[in-house]
Write a structure and sequence with these properties.
Layout: E1 2-6, E2 16-25, E3 28-38, E4 41-45, E5 48-52, E6 58-62, H1 69-92, H2 116-121
Antiparallel strand pairs: 1-2, 2-3, 3-4, 5-6
Amino acid sequence: MTAKIYNLNLNPNSSVKAYANLDLGNGFAVHGLKIINGQKGLFVSPPSRLSVGPNGEKKYFDIFHPTTKEARAEMNNTVISAYKTALEQAVQMGKEVIIAPCEEMSGGQEIDEPEPEMAAMYM
């Protein structure tokens, strides 16, 4: 599994930090994952689509999602690692990068999963 980061957002006030594409191997890829800086730190939000109910209520549904805890951890670790590498490359290119306090994570720390309703808010 490999990830490519694009649209790196260096604005410290934005909750969406970047977008990513994920190559799952065996000829499969997922495009449009978001790296979000939430209340519990960074998390990866899969691509989703908007559905409008009969009463006009809006709800987002994931187009892609891992089906096991291990697969979610591998996806998160791969994408977050690629994001941190992209940040390091931005610094090397002389871009000013300001890390928001809740974005800092120690190496090997487990990534907290967002509440499902929180993930939908960020889509």
